[in-house]
Write the structure tokens for this entry.
Amino acid sequence: MTNVESGTRTPIPPHARAHSRALVEHPFQRHCGLEILDQAPGRCRTRLRVAPATDNLSQALHGGVTYAMIDVTSMLATLPLLAAEEYAVSTSMATTILTAVPRGAQAEFESEVIRAGRTMIVTETKAFRMEADGARTLFATAQISKVRLAQDIRAPNP
């Protein structure tokens, strides 16, 4: 993946690339239209456009979709930090939704690993509504704890 800020390529291990691809190509993420904008060890930025399949009765991004995309983006930041024989699962998530994201708007999710310990990984994620003038409005924040597992998960080969 490309590091957009510096324009350089940040190496992501092959197993993490395969897992990241499998995660983004999972039917739910594809249904939501999630795409990776930038990924590097310990951080990731993703985006989706709010559509009828991802909104609620108020025609705004559904809270459940917000929680799920925060969790997925957090995992995409985590994957490059894991060994090939490891996986991680979320054990707790504290999320605050600050404002709505209307149908048709783009939402971006930015996740950063703030602690990668021997057994526990903690990430922070911020979600932004992208405005027509290029401004970004913070619409959600989250902190997620993950536990490392000694489990060899094989992503399907393309």
Summary: The chain has one domain: 14-149. The radius of gyration is 15 Å. The CA atoms of residues 2 and 9 lie 5 Å apart. The beta strands are 35-40, 43-49, 87-97, 106-116, 120-130, 136-149.
